[in-house]
């Protein structure tokens, strides 16, 4: 390992430094213009860049290249080609042309398109995305690309994300111009905190549910869970420490700013937080982070679980999407400064976000929807499914005074008194932590906490960027017509202030209060997802050129289909495990019990067989119930074909199939608590959670 971290950092990335060293000046400048302003690159320039990239990559040991893209599966895709090219006399040379850099043609028919791409036009293209650096992963030069269909519709998560960044840039610059702030462009920034679980590979391999679905479908509670709260920030075990160290190094080589690693609330749960970057780069890097988390784990005999809820009754894994808006001059527009009440750009951008979140609660909720996340949202461990916004007491007081047209008188902002002379005075943050809010202002950024651990952050940030762009559009119109900024802010607080909630989002009273305020409450993903292509959303996304109607419809379909498929696979896995593993475990134990009882009786009628007899009848009844419920689940799956509409299917999966799954699980988990350990077919929660 290189002991010199600055030297190691980004060593596998064709970054600024590599480009400056290896590209002729005019070519380098042309690439920079493309990166910054989206100017197109001409073929001769691309050829020079391709050649320099190839030489650099070969020096680093690369033999292949790939267009690296982010189809709607939510993970990344690559198809490797080697650099070799025949050079006559049975020899080869290493080649990589400008054309190969700029455009690729993977077979699009094997990726989800939601009906966008009829099979007769299966063609899809990948196009170089020069806004993100090329890098080397496992001896392959990876070219970040966008993926689109023959007719030009986006088939990936990156294209709309870039479009949404362009949209917010346009509107933010308009607003800033009215406020007299001079900027060339504005970007959004994201730091996604990533939670995950680690289990041993040995135990993982023994659980079909983990293998097929990423979560445990059966399992009774271990005697110890997270109640002692001794895992959060606890000391990290040596094996996990070694894993984290290697993961950090791998990420650093790829230019990912992995910064903080710590234990999370649940046993076996951990978190990695990177330093924030431009949203599109943060998205690429989060995909790489998830991929490497899994790969590096295997090298340590571990498996990294990214599922939203791998274990029932134990905290699930989310991804906190810390999001802000910054100018090209490096100013964070969500930094309130010492006197937030006098910071007009801050107040205007804050108001834009208040309006955006209030008017598009549906989109934020949908951006966190999925079969896996239904186990988390609203589960008293993750944010509620109701969208609201936390701003903290100081900002709330500032907004209050604006709403009432009064001057703001700051509270004496307290110095935290630790009563220990030696400790420095810590100034209290203007926002306390509120872990129950889905969308919380945390000092100089918003933290959107609803996302599940495994998803691409693209979806949520497309929504955040676009809805904020739309609110800024509204504000820019007013400012350009000469309205005063604070009047605009006041109007927004009057119309959209209901979205602000600083209380306990887990409390039952909040559900009632939210309903009174008219806030949306989509309890399940099946209920939420079809609203993605509501007319309001089609016009929003079309207005800002983020999605066409057809693209939005296709994405809705893919999302709902995925929901159905996930539950279907889970149900099939449960039936399989129940019949082939759980029932045979029960039978094996019953056999021993019966034989023991028979042997006892053979020796003497006086020895009591009460335990064996009671146990036998209990286990026998449980097994009968398991068998029956597995059959009920099986029958429920056969009925799915009666629903033609994909959204009806999703509702059926939630209302019928999922309910039958829970019923099957309940009896199987009860059986687990009485059957002898050596009879049980797969590792228990205790072994999984405390086995590393
Ligand atoms: P926490 O108290 O939640 O741990 P941190 O300050 O450590 O907060 O930041 C958490 C995450 O937020 C990190 O990934 C960090 O890089 C990110 N973050 C900080 N500032 C910004 C910003 N301006 N824009 C986006 N993300 C940010
Ligand atoms: Mg956080």
Detailed description of the structure:
By secondary structure, the chain is α+β, with helices and mostly antiparallel strands. The chain folds into 3 domains: 155 residues, Ubiquitin-like (UB roll); 374 residues, Glutamine synthetase/guanido kinase, catalytic domain (Creatine Kinase, Chain A, domain 2, 2-Layer Sandwich), CATH 3.30.590.10; 128 residues, Four Helix Bundle (Hemerythrin (Met), subunit A), CATH 1.20.120.1560. The protein has 22 helices and 19 strands. The strands form 4 sheets. Strands 9, 10, 11, 12, 13, 14, 15, 18 and 19 form a 9-stranded mixed sheet that branches. Strands 1, 2, 5, 6, 7 and 8 form a 6-stranded mixed sheet that branches. A hairpin with a 4-residue loop joins strand 18 and strand 19. The two termini are 25 Å apart. The model has no long low-confidence stretch (mean pLDDT 92). The site of adenosine-5'-diphosphate has 15 residues, from strand 9, strand 11 and strand 14. Adenosine-5'-diphosphate binds next to strand 9, strand 11 and strand 14.
């Amino acid at each position: 390992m290189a002991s010199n971290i600055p030297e190691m950092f980004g060593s596998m990335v064709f970054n600024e430094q590599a480009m400056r060293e290896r590209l002729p000046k005019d070519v380098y400048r042309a690439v920079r213009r493309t990166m910054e302003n989206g100017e197109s690159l001409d073929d001769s320039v691309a050829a020079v860049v391709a050649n320099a990239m190839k030489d650099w990559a070969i020096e680093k040991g690369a033999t292949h290249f790939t267009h690296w893209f982010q189809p709607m599966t939510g993970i990344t895709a690559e198809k490797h080609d080697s650099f070799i090219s025949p050079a006559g006399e049975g020899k080869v040379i290493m080649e990589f042309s400008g054309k190969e850099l700029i455009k690729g043609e993977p077979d699009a028919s094997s990726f989800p398109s939601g009906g966008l791409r009829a099979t007769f036009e299966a063609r899809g293209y990948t196009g170089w995305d020069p806004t993100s650096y090329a890098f080397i992963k496992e001896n392959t030069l990876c070219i970040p690309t966008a993926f689109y269909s023959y007719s030009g519709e986006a088939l990936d998560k990156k294209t709309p994300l870039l479009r949404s960044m362009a949209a917010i840039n346009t509107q933010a610059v308009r607003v800033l111009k009215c406020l007299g702030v001079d900027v060339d462009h504005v970007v959004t920034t994201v730091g996604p905190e990533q939670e995950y679980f680690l289990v041993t590979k040995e135990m993982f391999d023994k659980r079909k549910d983990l293998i097929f679905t990423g979560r445990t479908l059966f399992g009774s509670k271990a005697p110890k869970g997270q109640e002692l709260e001794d895992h959060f920030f606890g000391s990290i075990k040596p094996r996990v420490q070694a894993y984290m160290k290697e993961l950090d190094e791998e990420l650093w080589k790829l230019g990912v700013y992995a910064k903080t690693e710590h234990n999370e609330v649940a046993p076996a749960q951990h978190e990695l937080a990177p330093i924030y970057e431009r949203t599109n780069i943060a998205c690429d890097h989060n995909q790489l982070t998830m991929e490497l988390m899994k790969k590096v784990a295997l090298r340590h005999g571990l498996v990294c679980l990214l599922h939203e809820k791998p274990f029932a009754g134990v905290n699930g894994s989310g991804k906190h999407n810390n999001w802000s808006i910054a100018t090209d001059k490096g100013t964070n527009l969500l930094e309130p400064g010492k006197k937030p009440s006098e910071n007009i750009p801050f107040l205007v951008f804050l108001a834009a976000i208040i309006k955006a979140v209030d008017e598009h609660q549906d989109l934020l909720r949908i951006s966190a929807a999925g079969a896996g996340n239904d186990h988390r949202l609203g589960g008293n461990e993750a944010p509620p499914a109701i969208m609201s916004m936390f701003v903290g007491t100081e900002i709330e007081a500032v907004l209050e005074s604006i709403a009432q047209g009064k001057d703001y008188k700051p509270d004496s902002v307290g110095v935290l008194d630790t009563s220990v002379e030696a400790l420095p005075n810590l100034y209290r943050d203007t926002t306390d932590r509120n872990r129950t809010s889905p969308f919380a202002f945390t000092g100089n950024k918003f933290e959107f906490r609803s996302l599940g651990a495994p998803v691409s952050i693209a979806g949520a940030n497309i929504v955040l960027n676009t809805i904020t762009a739309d609110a800024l559009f509204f504000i820019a119109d007013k400012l350009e017509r000469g309205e005063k900024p604070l009047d605009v802010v006041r109007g927004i607080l009057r119309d959209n202030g209901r979205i602000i909630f600083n209380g306990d989002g887990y409390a039952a009273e909040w559900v009632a209060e939210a309903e009174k305020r008219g806030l949306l409450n989509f309890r399940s993903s099946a209920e939420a997802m079809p609203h993605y292509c509501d007319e309001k959303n089609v016009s929003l996304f079309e207005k800002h050129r983020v999605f066409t109607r057809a693209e939005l419809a296709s994405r809705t379909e893919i999302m709902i289909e995925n929901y159905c498929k996930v539950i279907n696979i889970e149900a099939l896995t449960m039936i399989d495990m129940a019949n082939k593993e759980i029932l045979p475990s029960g039978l094996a134990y019953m056999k021993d019990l019966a034989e023991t009882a028979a042997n006892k009786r053979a020796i003497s009628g006086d020895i009591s067989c009460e335990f064996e007899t009671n146990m036998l009848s209990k286990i026998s009844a449980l097994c009968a119930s398991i068998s029956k419920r597995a059959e009920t689940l099986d029958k429920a799956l056969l009925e799915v074909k009666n629903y033609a509409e994909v959204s009806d299917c999703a509702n059926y999966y939630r209302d019928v199939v999922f309910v039958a799954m829970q019923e099957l699980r309940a009896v199987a988990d009860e059986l687990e608590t009485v059957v002898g350990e050596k009879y049980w077919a797969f590792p228990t929660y205790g072994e999984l959670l405390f086995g590393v």
